Amino acid sequence: MPGYDETAVKSVKPVIAIVASRTGTGKSQTSRKVVEILKSMGKKVVAIRHPMPYGNLAKQQVQRFAEVSDLKKHKCTIEEMEEYEPHVVQGNVIYAGTDYEAIIREAEKEADIIIWDGGNNDMPFYKSDLVITVVDPHRPGHELKYYPGFINLLIADIVVINKIDSADHSDVNIVRENIEKYNPKAVIVEAASPVSLERSGRCKTHKNKRTLIVERTDRRSPRWNEIWSSHYSRKNSEQRKLWIHVNLQSDRSATHLKSILTSANFCRQWVTEISR
């Protein structure tokens, strides 16, 4: 069966790939951080995103996004905007589409270094000079159990254990031990993934405010829900925060606040309190 070495397209420019063991590990934020660092070093960096287009695929072979208006030009879905817009707002150029041979040839014309911004837990589409694989300690062991995420662990030069600020220390250790066992040559980097709120418009300050955060997510483990709900539901007189993780991918209908919270298996007391 052809693997990464047989299928990856070669580039004439250096390629850094950011991939993951599972969906939702924090690849996108890692990709943008890598771009930021390289740009601060004076490099011309172009990102290429894992394919996401819908609609007329023939017209979407090569898409280039450098301005917010490009999102409308290419008739992006909300899902696509979610990935492309943060790059554009950050001042980055990002490509996507369906013809990844043609895409990288265009990107090569304006880049010193190309960033592969992976999707899901897929392998890089391009032969990479450096592979950074992001893993999730909220799902310890998943880095070994899923294809092709496990391949991403094996080919990694650097493995980022993300979300250590919210994961159990024991789970972080499990992931670290798995990395050291299956890819002992990889450099391990621990990273935090803090939640923040932009202070602008009506949200100039959120100090001493109760905050309801509804996050679109999928394929989260029950353990993940348990950790976040127990950690952020504790009443704190100083912060007065209440984090509610809501799985919008639930099979059950979620048409208003109560049913959303119920579908996420939160207790009746929280539902009543927030509904007020």
Shape: globular
Number of separate strands: 8
Helix segment tally: 11
In CATH terms, the superfamily of the largest domain is P-loop containing nucleotide triphosphate hydrolases
Low-confidence stretches: 217-224, 231-268
Distance between the termini: 57 Å
Supply the helix-strand structural class: alpha/beta
Helix content: 25-40%
Largest sheet: 8 strands, mixed
Can you tell me the CATH class of the largest domain? Alpha Beta
Strand order of the largest sheet: 3-4-2-5-1-6-7-8
CATH architecture of the largest domain, by name, is 3-Layer(aba) Sandwich
What's the topology here?
Blueprint: H1 4-7, E1 15-20, H2 27-40, E2 45-49, E3 62-65, H3 69-73, H4 78-89, E4 93-97, H5 100-108, E5 113-117, E6 130-135, H6 142-145, H7 149-154, E7 158-161, H8 169-182, E8 187-190, H9 222-232, H10 257-263, H11 268-275
Parallel strand pairs: 1-5, 1-6, 2-4, 2-5, 6-7, 7-8
Antiparallel strand pairs: 3-4
Helix pairs in contact: 10-11
What is this structure, in a nutshell?
The protein is an alpha/beta fold. It has eleven helices and eight strands. Helix content is 34%, strand content 14%.
Task: Throw out a few tags for this protein.
11 helices, single chain, 14% strand, 8-stranded mixed beta sheet, 276 residues, 2 domains, Rossmann fold, alpha/beta
Explain how this protein is built:
The chain has helices at 4-7, 27-40, 69-73, 78-89, 100-108, 142-145, 149-154, 169-182, 222-232, 257-263, 268-275, and strands spanning 15-20, 45-49, 62-65, 93-97, 113-117, 130-135, 158-161, 187-190. The chain is of the alpha/beta class. It has two domains: 4-190, P-loop containing nucleotide triphosphate hydrolases (Rossmann fold); 222-275, no CATH class. It has an eight-stranded mixed sheet with strand order 3-4-2-5-1-6-7-8, sandwiched between helices. Residues 217-224 and 231-268 have low confidence and may be disordered.
